[in-house]
Amino acid sequence: MRERTDLIGGSPAMAEVRRRIEVLGPGNLPVLLMGETGTGKEVVARRLHALSGRDPFVAVNAAAVSRELLESELFGHVKGAFSGAARDRVGLIESARGGTLFLDEIGDMASSLQAKLLRVLERHEVRPVGTNEPRAVDVRVIAATNRRLDRDEDRRRADFREDLYYRLAVSSILLPPLRARPEDIPPLAAYYSGEAGIAPEAVEVLQAHPWPGNVRQLKSAVVMAAVLARGEEIRVEHLPKELREEALLARAGQIADQAREGRRYPTLEDAEREHVRRTLGLFPESTQEELAALLGIDRKTLRRKRRKYGLEREVGGQEG
Question: Among 19, 32, 55, 182, who pairs with 168 as Cys (CB 3.0-4.6 Å)?
Fold first, then answer.
């Protein structure tokens, strides 16, 4: 599966993100990326780096390294600075000299390290653990967090320094969650489905889901569906069952609303026929008993309704 190297989607929200990237990328200012987990912050960071002409790109996740080790990891240390420091070690900030340091989950960084990072941004120098001797560094910092540090309450909850926030917030980008841009789901699904592609009905089910894990969660669902499809077009039955059940409930609610408002479905029979047909399509591998349970009826009633509405040849409803 290809890794995404650019932003996908033509929604207004993503157009604004692209505009900010084009403006901020070529400069050397630090950038703060804010967005929920899975919204593509590292993709944005790499795009900013590519536009800067700097090299190398060094990434570190502050939440993945213990607070005790993170200072040494970032700033380095000198021999004898602490037990086990057998030799000098260059930190990641110095390793990124001339390039970009992508510091993910900066909201989880201890306040003492935030102060040292501020010194890097303001004075362009680092002080390794165990020495007061500063070392000049030329590095661009791109920081990312899943917290809304632009909100006072969230900053206080994260114990995030005001001075560091205002130093970073001069150039910030807010990445929208996937649920705020459902029109971007079809091109994302097509990208992750590969050459086999994805059926329109399956895309419709994907668009009905709120995706709390954002693009990362969508990618996992589509990639797994592609495995189940075995090189063929991804269809509804290849998607996770919970997504299909969710789509069915949402559709049932829409039908009820439309019936109450007298729109689109002139009779209740039309609404019922569509609901049964939709259920058969969403759960083609289910038994008659399972389908009847989903519809809140017994198996005999389901058979009668299939005959009544001419749905006997529709997929779904294996005997079992």
Answer: 32
What's the CA gap between 190 and 223, in Å, rounded? 11
Tell me the pLDDT tens digit for each residue of 271-299.
788 788 878 877 777 788 878 887 888 88
Q: Helices 200-207 and 185-193: crossing angle, nearest 10°?
A: 130
Position 196 pLDDT exceeds 90: no
Q: What would be the CATH architecture of the domain defined by 12-176?
A: 3-Layer(aba) Sandwich (3.40)
Give the predicted TM-score (pTM) of the model: 0.78
Structure-block tokens of residue 71: 């200072």
Give the gyration radius of the chain's Cα atoms: 26
Q: Does residue 38 come out as left (phi exceeding 0), alpha (psi in the -120 to 50 range) or beta?
A: left
Return the half-sphere exposure (C-beta side, CA atoms, 13 A cut-off) of residue 67.
9
- CATH level 2 (architecture), domain 179-308: Orthogonal Bundle (1.10)
Give me the pLDDT at residue 265, please. Answer: 46
What average pLDDT does the segment 304-315 reach?
80
Residue type, 209: H
Chain CA centroid to CA 91, Å: 29
